[in-house]
TrEMBL record:
Keywords from the named record: Hydrolase, Magnesium, Multifunctional enzyme, Nucleotidyltransferase, Repeat, Transferase
Name of the encoding gene: glnD
Protein name: Bifunctional uridylyltransferase/uridylyl-removing enzyme
Gene3D superfamilies for this protein: 3.30.70.260, Beta Polymerase, domain 2 (3.30.460.10), cca-adding enzyme, domain 2 (1.10.3090.10)
Alphabetized HAMAP family for the sequence: PII_uridylyl_transf
Function of the protein: Modifies, by uridylylation and deuridylylation, the PII regulatory proteins (GlnB and homologs), in response to the nitrogen status of the cell that GlnD senses through the glutamine level. Under low glutamine levels, catalyzes the conversion of the PII proteins and UTP to PII-UMP and PPi, while under higher glutamine levels, GlnD hydrolyzes PII-UMP to PII and UMP (deuridylylation). Thus, controls uridylylation state and activity of the PII proteins, and plays an important role in the regulation of nitrogen metabolism.
Classification via SUPFAM superfamilies: ACT-like, Nucleotidyltransferase, Nucleotidyltransferase substrate binding subunit/domain, Poly A polymerase C-terminal region-like
GO annotation (BP), single: regulation of nitrogen utilization
Keyword Cytoplasm tagged: no
Catalytic activity field: [protein-PII]-uridylyl-L-tyrosine + H2O = [protein-PII]-L-tyrosine + UMP + H(+); [protein-PII]-L-tyrosine + UTP = [protein-PII]-uridylyl-L-tyrosine + diphosphate
Claim: Nucleotidyltransferase is one of the keywords in the record: yes
Annotated EC: 2.7.7.59, 3.1.4.-
Stretch list, region Uridylyltransferase: 1-373
Domain annotation ACT: ranges: 730-812, 841-925
């Protein structure tokens, strides 16, 4: 074995030390003495490896040195076993053994926390001597703290098992001789090559590609998830391993240079392979050293420290951690390019695949080349678009855009030779091509295609064409946002949002988005919507607000794409205001008339309202799994339906008194089976705000609840309703009114594990409170969710009646979220009297933490404020809680000193300076 001068273990020195120990130590103490020395050697070796890595050393060098160190440790243990502990006096032909490294260890690469995969290779069946040696070696390695995967097999068993098990076959493919009988190892490799590998290349390729696809599916099917798995994720080390396994198996090579000689890689592609591998090994080794375990996922709580270890610094608009993660995703993209081109070429040559343009490869027998109508530069090569001649991009650079337009138009996949040529021709995308009217027309048609533009745009991005043709898009390629809200990089999010928009237009999401589905066929200019969708986050990572910066990009790019001035201005408006509808819907009181009037003043036209709704839905849906839910959809629909009449001259002209009277009459008709006197008495119990902010079904349910409570003489009553379509569960609480009521309800919900997303608070004319708490749904079955809701309502009743100690119940139930500790979010307390005609609006935003809503509402109660409604939104680690309040006399808060006191107290509550030390509870919103 070749050793570098920087080896972590001096073989000769260690061998001499162990020989001295073996010679001069009592046999009963020999094992312990050797183990102590090897532990010291391993500890010092790992320390040195980490120090060199932190000093700027390469990850691949670190991995090789750690592998070499383990080689020496295993060799020392093996030689101790066969020479001193279990020496064979007259060894038979069966008493031979070879220690073989397999798997990742077989590649001579070990991360600090990696498993050690060993094969104890025998000539025939196991012997008592062999059993003793294997047991001694394994127990010594385990006592050293190493994780060892092992198998003891003879040569025949290895050949037989690898014939039917791809995992075993792959392990032996990477087998490397360590110690023992080298002739035995040579026998294994020769028979494996002749009896297993020969003529089975296509089967192995198919198995490895299927294994890769399943691994990608488990890891989230995207290389752009913001907490990537460095080893198993898409674009990670395992993808490079898969590529090399296939090349090694099919082309029978054992080095990267041999791959170039075999024509698999060009020199530049091999250089890219090694550069990507180097970066990923550095990240993986740092990750293992940092966590002290075999951690493969770059979770949020590790990313910042990893960025510091790797030497990244902050730049304007991008944090150090965001620059590190952008580099990571660019490397993952390179890995994706290498594996996709290589594996597609193999499928092309050996698996006879003929996929259509979708996410999965299909198979068909026909194989032919035919012309594409209207094009002489491209052909259909067994259902894949390919070049008719090698010089298509040199002769006409517009073809770099045309090829994707044709692929979309004719539903074609991409030939690997074509993608290689496109990637190598990126320098031809210059200022002249960007201004070319034909190129821009083709791109605009592709972007707004009625087919599946998401798929083609993603391939366009992966080839590097999209970022070169739209340079502002190129700036956000592989850009991650260091927060828990966004699940993908910015470029991936933008492309996914195009996919969501297209699926809404195709009518595929009618159940989730019924309003958007009904509106989109009537949009006057769908192209404007698609351009705005592509550009809405394109200015992320800049010092200025990305909505304003994005509008500036839109005004510059619109004319280039061929949009009229009016179209360009609409795109710019949509980009600049793409967050407004979501913010208003989730954090404002939609029953407050001023909210709707202010929003309508921003939107100004019904057509803009329609487009903004559809864009908002697609944007939220493309953020990541689980971010969109039916409750958000209901809020957006409510905002739309409330705003639409103002923009079309509807009921906004009707006086408030008339609308209250109409609502009272509507309920009176619904309660016509009640005795007249009882009905009239009930109608007098509610103030005007109630009549305008509650829909008829809920008014009827409230009436029945209060009637039953009065009949039974109860001062406290609750009811539970599951709203399946909205994805929420409503708990209505009828109780004596007092300032701490909402705080107690919030605390009870926290203790019960309920996640509050909204709250409406009303007071009846006889001094009772009628509060509706909206919880996020957790269980799939309506029956199970109803039972959960009833458990929460029972705990609320217990808390309000004083039969449960709330702080203790909260502390016992809730668990803090460790990931939040990785983030810093500035706390902001805004107090505004212009957002409502009746209430002072308090918006508290900052870092989410356990028990936040409980502490905020408790502080507001301590400040002698009445809460009329609460609106709770969480964007990953950032919480935005909005309260509509009055003083105890029902007036707005206008005193400057009192406003300052509110800010101070809520800042303390937000930061948990008092309550968080006493209880560790989960936030309820």
């Amino acid at each position: 074995m070749i050793r570098s001068d920087s080896a972590l273990v001096d073989r000769d020195e260690l061998a001499a030390e162990l020989e001295t120990i073996a010679t001069h130590t009592d046999k009963s103490k020999l094992r312990g003495a050797v183990l102590a020395r090897l532990k010291d050697v391993m500890r010092k070796g790992r320390q040195r490896a980490e120090q060199d890595l932190l000093a700027g050393g390469k990850g691949s060098v670190c991995a090789r040195r750690l592998s070499d160190m383990v080689d020496e440790l295993i060799g020392a243990i093996f030689h101790l076993a066969v020479r001193h502990v279990y020496p064979a006096q007259n060894p038979s032909s069966a008493e031979r053994m070879a220690l073989v490294a397999v798997g990742g260890y077989g590649r001579s690469m070990l991360a600090p926390g990696s498993d050690i995969d060993l094969l104890f290779l025998l000539p025939y069946k196991q012997t008592p001597w062999g059993e003793s040696v294997v047991e001694f070696v394994l127990y010594m390695l385990w006592d050293l703290g190493l994780k060892v995967g092992h198998a003891t097999r003879n040569v025949d068993e290895c050949i037989r098992l690898s014939g039917g098990d791809m995992t075993i076959r792959t392990a032996i493919l990477e087998a490397r001789f360590l110690w023992g009988d080298e002739k035995l190892f040579a026998q294994l490799t020769q028979r494996f090559d002749e009896q297993v590998v020969k003529n089975t290349g296509p089967a192995f390729i198919a198995a490895k590609l299927a294994e890769r696809d399943e691994r990608h599916r488990r890891q989230g099917a995207s290389r752009y998830v913001v907490e990537p798995n460095v080893k198993e994720g898409k674009g990670g080390l395992r993808d490079l391993h898969t590529l090399f396994w296939i090349a090694k198996y099919f082309y029978r090579v054992r080095s990267g240079d041999a791959l170039v000689e075999a024509g698999v890689f060009s020199r530049s592609e091999l250089a890219l392979f090694r550069k990507s591998e180097e970066f990923l090994w550095s990240v993986r080794c740092h990750l293992h050293f940092l966590t002290g375990r075999a951690e493969e996922r770059l979770s949020f709580d590790l990313q910042r420290e990893m960025a510091v270890r790797l030497g990244y610094t902050s730049h304007p608009g991008l944090k150090d951690v965001e620059r590190f993660m952008k580099h990571y995703f660019l490397v993952a993209k390179d890995v994706g390019d290498l594996t996709l081109i290589f594996c597609a070429a193999l499928e092309e040559e050996h698996a006879k695949a003929t996929p259509g343009l979708n996410r999965f490869f299909g198979f068909a027998p026909r194989r032919r080349v035919k012309k594409i109508p209207g094009s002489t530069d491209f052909v259909v090569d067994h259902d894949r678009i390919n070049m008719a001649k090698p010089d298509v991009f040199e002769r006409d650079p517009v073809n770099l855009i045309r090829l994707f337009h044709l692929a979309d138009k004719h539903n074609l996949a991409f030939h690997p030779d074509l993608m290689k040529a496109a990637t190598r021709s990126l320098k031809r995308i210059d200022g002249k091509l960007r201004e070319d009217p034909t190129a821009n027309k083709l791109f605009l048609e592709l972007l707004a295609s009625h087919n599946q533009p998401e798929i083609v745009l993603r391939r366009m991005n992966e080839a590097g064409v999209l970022g070169r043709f739209v340079p502002d898009f190129g700036k956000v390629v592989a850009m991650m946002q260091f927060n828990m809200y966004h699940h993908y990089t910015v470029d991936e999010h933008l492309i996914r949002s195009i996919g969501v928009l297209a699926s809404i237009e195709r009518g595929e999401r009618a159940q989730d988005h019924p309003l958007a589905n009904s509106l989109i066929p009537n949009i006057q200019d769908r192209v404007v919507l698609y351009v705005a969708m592509l550009l809405h986050d394109i200015a992320k990572g800049r010092p200025e607000d990305h909505s304003i910066g994005g509008a500036r990009v839109a005004r510059k790019l619109g004319p280039r794409l061929g949009l009229s001035p009016a179209q360009t201005e609409t795109v710019a408006w949509l980009v600049e205001n793409h967050l407004v509808m979501s913010m208003v819907a989730q954090s404002r009181d939609l029953g407050d008339r001023k909210t709707i009037q202010d929003f309508a003043a921003v939107v100004q036209s019904l057509e803009r309202l329609k487009m903004l709704l559809i864009l908002t839905i697609a944007d939220i849906s493309a953020v990541g799994p689980g971010v969109w839910n039916a409750w958000k959809g209901q809020l957006l629909r409510t905002l739309y339906y409330e705003t639409e009449p103002l923009l079309t001259g509807g009921h906004s002209q009707i006086s408030r008194d008339k609308r209250v009277a109409a609502a009272r009459a509507e309920l009176a008709q619904a309660l016509e089976n009640w005795p007249a006197a009882e009905r009239e008495a009930y109608l007098e119990r509610h103030y005007p705000a109630y009549w305008l902010r509650v829909d008829l079904p809920r008014k009827i349910a409230h009436a029945e609840l209060l009637r039953a409570a009065d009949a039974e003489g109860r001062t406290l009553a609750t009811s539970v309703a599951v709203r399946a379509f909205e994805g929420v569960t409503e708990i209505t609480v009828f109780a004596p009114d007092h300032p701490r009521l909402l705080s107690l309800i919030a605390g009870a919900c926290t203790a019960a594990g309920g996640n509050i997303v909204d709250a409406q608070i009303f007071t009846t004319g006889d001094g009772r409170a009628l509060d509706t708490i909206v919880l996020q749904r957790e269980l799939e079955s309506d029956e199970e969710e109803l039972r959960r809701g009833k458990k929460v309502s029972t705990l609320i009743e217990d808390a309000l009646s004083g039969t449960v100690a709330l702080p203790e119940a909260i502390a016992k139930k809730a668990k803090p979220r460790a990931k939040i500790k990785a983030f810093t979010v500035k706390t902001q307390i805004l107090i505004d009297n212009s957002w409502s005609n009746q209430f002072t609006v308090i918006e508290a935003s900052g870092l989410d933490r356990p028990g936040l809503l409980f502490d905020l509402t408790r502080s507001i109660s301590d400040l002698n404020l009445n809460i009329a409604s609460a609106h709770v939104a969480t964007f990953g680690e950032r919480a935005v809680d909005v309260f509509y309040v009055t003083d105890l006399m029902g007036r707005k808060v206008t005193n400057a000193a009192r406003e300052a006191n509110i800010r101070r107290r809520l800042q303390q509550a937000f930061e948990g300076e008092a309550a968080a030390e006493k209880t560790s509870v989960r936030r309820t919103g």
